[in-house]
């Protein structure tokens, strides 16, 4: 394209020059070939310069001819011309007057402007009138100003306009981009944890780059502090490194040191500066210099003498004062500290633990990845009310010390194993432990890494952390003593003692609210680990499992939603084929009826349907309804349904659990007041009175008065409609989810089971070759009902054991509630289960994971819906039962 701008004109004396508007309103180039225009894949165009999207070509032409685009083009051309005439100058003393720079570079041409760094005054931009004048200044061999040598280079080219700022954080590593796909393909949890280490740890190239930076720092600092050493510590070298972790460096100063060139005259080229010479103590010795002045001197060396270092700032108020920096070429951030040898021993201790047992690193990586996904760690600024990576790793070490038998020895045991060459005292603290992990005897603990990860969450989820002192030194949790008896240790909601500096609480920064959330997240993760989705990979489903299920949003318990375990069920949209606004096949009422049928008649659950009116005993003060014929279908053994009336006003989704004592549950066949398939309730599931019920919409016959039919003076309320319940109190007496696949194959065999002929299943249920009037869905329901009957009878084909019979109490109890959910295009019925008690036992997780795939398919069969109809497809993974 041709030139974008016209001549620069002034608008009066004393005013800044303004770019004249483009005299040609038409773009100088074809809009489709303009480098500022980006065609979009779905049509339309985007202007990279103005960050504006145009829907079509006329809109694009109008935008390119507008004032905003022309003004930005002119401003960009002006900036490009300024870059060709400007110099970047650094190395001058702080407080230098811009007039001095103007006089110095005036020898090469006319200086049109000098822009100083406002924050630190460490650099300046000098603009000359012509590019040839800038070239003469760059070719000059040496620039001196006030006895200092200036560093002069061309001004850096920057894009215009600048892209929007991105969120601060380490760059995403290429190996971690496919983390979910890689973990999903692993065969088991242990392989997932090993793969997590391989994907997150530093690569060999990254380790070499960090080694080169350490060598560069060593070379530079040795010029100013002869005999010093730069030692890396922290995440980079403690065995738990991850992509983008900080480069922590410790400057080990010699016992006696002085700055070279102290005897040179002030302002000479060999010394740092006149002011910096005064930072040292008397006689130029580093021993007498205060720590704050030493940090300032270290910052000066970093800022002026290490290539590529920028963003240098001292943090003297930290617990261990440091100097932070960033390296431009590598993109790494780090810090340099002085007089912090305890950090070196902490790093060696964690490295020792990582090498002592092959399960330590995978467990540490898994816990740290989980904590970062839950928002419990990973603060980019390094502080705040979150756990540091060091604190998380210490929690893992402490947990492994408390196992029986322990995976790692306690700090006191390591002190006893230390040899004479391993003895060390730092600041009065005993830092003795072996340097070689081979001196340890192999651990007698044979648990897998996956089981240790599950126990980690159960362990910390069950601790009363505010009342305990977690001591890796002792290898056990101690009752927290009063603050005055801790020897300077500051207790907090989470008191985690450093293994060497016993007066340091590593988790002192976290508040009580965080500790409560940490315990809750641990309990939710432990609940997920007890379920089948943690240990067993789905055969066909892409649902996250194992470690991947812990890393996804949701706190480690993905099925928990709104206070219960949620199961989506199919629902036809309103106005769909056969759907209707609320009824018809596949409507909300029919889905609720199908749910009750499957739970009661197919799975043999002991259900108590309830509404939202009245009290626990019914609408009238809890009287037992008179006996009468039940409208429900005959239930299989173990499927008796007792009716306790309505549940009363609900304070929440499931009502107030503590409003009334729950009635005792009678086992099936016990003949209790609420059991029995034959002795039902004439009110049925709805609490209606005896006698034939009128059809919905018809008039109710007048009640009988003492002297004949009579009409009460007031209008009587209309009776409640015949609606199926949407709230059930259920109990499970048998493990009806186990062994269903084997029983189903046996019952489908044309030779039948014991006493069964071709096409006929035990209990009188007809198979595919039986009742010709039943469809495929009814055949499936009859088959599943026969499977349940076989499980209840104990006819599972297993070796004979205890004779089958009713257990003394139910295995599981829960409440289930159905509500509408989803969207208009994809409506669903969300069935939420609340276990009793909460948290539920591990057996409930097995039942829930079975029910989540079994129930939607059975509801479809009951309503005659196709598999892809009604949305809410059940999770894939083979058949909907457990073996």
From TrEMBL:
Pfam families attached to this UniProt entry: MTPAP-like_central, PAP_assoc, RRM_1, zf-met
GO molecular function: ATP binding; metal ion binding; poly(A) RNA polymerase activity; RNA binding; RNA uridylyltransferase activity
Record field: catalytic activity: RNA(n) + UTP = RNA(n)-3'-uridine ribonucleotide + diphosphate
Requisite cofactors: Mn(2+); Mg(2+)
Residues of the RRM domain: 85-157
Keyword ATP-binding recorded: yes
Pro residues composition-biased segments: 161-173, 693-724, 800-810
A biological process term (GO) from this entry: RNA 3'-end processing
Alphabetized PROSITE patterns for the sequence: RRM
Entry GO CC: nuclear speck
EC number(s) on file: 2.7.7.52
SUPFAM superfamilies listed in its UniProt record: Nucleotidyltransferase (SSF81301), PAP/OAS1 substrate-binding domain (SSF81631), RNA-binding domain, RBD (SSF54928)
Region of interest (Disordered), ranges: 1-37, 156-178, 253-286, 545-584, 611-730, 746-813
Keyword Protein biosynthesis: no
Composition bias, Gly residues: 575-584, 669-681, 752-777
Keywords: ATP-binding, Magnesium, Metal-binding, Nucleotide-binding, Nucleotidyltransferase, RNA-binding, Transferase
Top-level EC class as recorded in UniProt: transferase
Composition bias type Low complexity, residue spans: 254-271
Protein's recorded name: Speckle targeted PIP5K1A-regulated poly(A) polymerase
Organism per entry: Pipra filicauda (Wire-tailed manakin)
Primary gene name: LOC120322887
């Amino acid at each position: 394209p041709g030139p974008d701008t016209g001549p620069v004109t002034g608008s009066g004396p004393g005013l800044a020059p303004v770019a004249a508007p483009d005299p040609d309103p038409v773009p100088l180039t074809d809009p489709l070939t303009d480098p500022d225009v980006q065609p979009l894949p779905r049509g339309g165009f985007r202007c990279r310069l103005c960050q504006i999207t145009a829907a079509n070509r006329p809109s694009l032409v109008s935008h390119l001819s507008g004032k905003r685009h022309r003004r930005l083009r002119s401003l960009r051309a002006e900036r490009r011309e300024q870059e060709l005439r400007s110099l970047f100058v650094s190395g001058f003393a702080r407080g230098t007057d811009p007039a001095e720079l103007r006089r110095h570079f005036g020898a090469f041409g006319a200086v049109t402007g000098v822009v100083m760094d406002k924050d630190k005054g460490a650099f300046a931009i000098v603009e000359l009138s012509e590019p040839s004048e800038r070239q003469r200044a760059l070719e000059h061999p040496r620039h001196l100003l006030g006895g200092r040598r200036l560093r002069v280079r061309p001004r850096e080219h920057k894009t215009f306009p600048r892209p929007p700022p991105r969120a601060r954080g380490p760059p995403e590593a290429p190996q971690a981009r496919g983390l979910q796909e890689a973990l999903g393909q692993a065969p088991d949890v242990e392989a997932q944890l090993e793969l997590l280490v391989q994907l997150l740890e530093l690569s060999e190239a990254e380790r070499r780059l960090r080694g080169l930076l350490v060598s560069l720092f060593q070379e530079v600092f040795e010029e100013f502090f002869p005999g010093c050493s730069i030692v890396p510590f922290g995440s980079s070298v403690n065995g738990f490194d991850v992509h983008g972790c900080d480069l922590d460096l410790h400057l080990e100063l010699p016992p006696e040191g002085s700055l070279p060139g102290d005897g040179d005259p002030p302002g000479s080229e060999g010394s740092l500066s006149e002011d910096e010479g005064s930072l040292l103590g008397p006689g130029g010795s580093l021993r007498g210099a205060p720590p704050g002045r030493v940090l300032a001197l270290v910052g000066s060396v970093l800022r002026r003498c290490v290539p590529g270092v920028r963003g240098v700032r001292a943090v003297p108020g930290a617990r261990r004062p440091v100097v932070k920096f960033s390296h431009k070429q590598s993109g790494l951030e780090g810090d340099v500290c002085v007089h912090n040898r305890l950090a070196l021993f902490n790093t060696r201790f964690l490295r020792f633990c990582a090498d002592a047992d092959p399960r330590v690193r995978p467990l540490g990586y898994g816990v740290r990845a989980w904590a970062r996904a839950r928002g419990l760690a990973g603060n980019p600024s390094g502080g705040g009310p979150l756990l540091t990576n060091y604190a998380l790793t210490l929690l893992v070490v402490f947990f492994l010390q408390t196992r029986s038998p322990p995976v790692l020895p306690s700090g006191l045991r390591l002190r006893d194993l230390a040899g004479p060459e391993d003895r060390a005292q730092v600041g009065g603290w005993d830092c003795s432990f072996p340097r070689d992990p081979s001196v340890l005897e192999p651990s007698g603990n044979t648990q897998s890494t996956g089981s240790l990860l599950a126990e980690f969450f159960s362990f910390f989820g069950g601790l009363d952390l505010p009342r305990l002192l977690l001591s890796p030194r002792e290898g056990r949790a101690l009752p927290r003593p009063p603050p005055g008896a801790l020897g300077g240790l500051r207790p907090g909601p989470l008191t985690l003692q450093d293994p060497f500096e016993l007066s340091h609480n590593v988790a002192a920064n976290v508040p009580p609210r965080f500790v409560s959330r940490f315990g809750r997240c641990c309990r939710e993760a432990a609940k997920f680990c007890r379920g089948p989705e943690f240990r067993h990979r789905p055969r066909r489903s892409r649902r996250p499992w194992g470690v991947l299920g812990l890393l996804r949003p949701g706190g480690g318990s993905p099925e928990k939603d709104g206070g219960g375990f949620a199961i989506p069920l199919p629902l036809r949209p309103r106005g769909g084929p056969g759907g209707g606004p609320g009824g018809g096949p596949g409507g909300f009422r029919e889905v609720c009826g199908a749910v009750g049928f499957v739970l009661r008649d197919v799975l043999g659950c002991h259900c108590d349907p309830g509404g939202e009116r009245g009290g626990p005993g019914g609408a009238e003060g809890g009287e037992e309804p008179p006996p009468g014929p039940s409208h429900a279908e005959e239930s299989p053994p173990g499927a008796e349904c007792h009716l306790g009336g309505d549940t009363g006003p609900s304070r929440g989704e499931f009502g107030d659990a503590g409003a009334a004592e729950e009635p005792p549950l009678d086992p099936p066949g016990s003949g209790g007041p609420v059991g029995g398939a034959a002795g039902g309730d004439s009110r049925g599931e709805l609490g209606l009175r005896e006698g034939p019920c009128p059809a919905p919409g018809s008039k109710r016959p007048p009640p009988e008065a003492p002297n004949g039919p009579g009409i009460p003076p007031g209008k009587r309320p209309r009776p409640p409609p015949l609606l199926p319940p949407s709230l059930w109190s259920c109990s499970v007496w048998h493990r009806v989810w186990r062994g269903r696949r084997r029983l189903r194959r046996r019952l489908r065999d044309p030779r039948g089971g014991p006493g069964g002929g071709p096409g006929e299943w035990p209990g009188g249920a007809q198979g595919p070759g039986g009742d010709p009037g039943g469809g495929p869905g009814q055949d499936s329901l009859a088959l599943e009902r026969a499977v349940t009957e076989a499980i209840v009878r104990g006819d599972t084909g297993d070796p004979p054991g205890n004779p089958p019979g009713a257990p003394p109490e139910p295995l599981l109890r829960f409440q289930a509630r159905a509500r509408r959910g989803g969207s208009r295009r994809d409506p669903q019925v969300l069935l939420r289960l609340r276990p009793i008690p909460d948290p539920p036992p591990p057996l409930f997780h097995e039942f829930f994971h079975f029910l989540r795939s079994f129930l939607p398919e059975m509801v479809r069969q009951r309503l005659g819906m196709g598999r892809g109809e009604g949305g809410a497809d059940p999770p894939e993974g083979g058949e909907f039962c457990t073996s």
